[in-house]
Amino acid sequence: MEVTILFKIGAVGILVSVLCQILKHSQREELAFLTSLAGLLVVLFWVLPYIYELFQTIEDLFSL
């Protein structure tokens, strides 16, 4: 696993957190929820290939 993906996930987390706080203080809770959902989806799409690779490795390990 690359280290840069961890920094990207951390950066998205910080950015989403700040945006959500700004939107909540401006009485836009719906947009804050959508922002956090969008951040979650972006990170999920980044991590999904690594999860697939993990399951492939486990499958190869047990299919001797």
UniProtKB/TrEMBL annotation:
Record's keyword terms, sorted: Membrane, Transmembrane, Transmembrane helix
Transmembrane is among the record's keywords: yes
TM region(s), chain numbering: 6-24, 31-52
Domain of life: Bacteria
Any Pfam family: SpoIIIAC
Gene name in the database record: spoIIIAC
Record has Cell membrane as a keyword: no
Record protein name field: Stage III sporulation protein AC
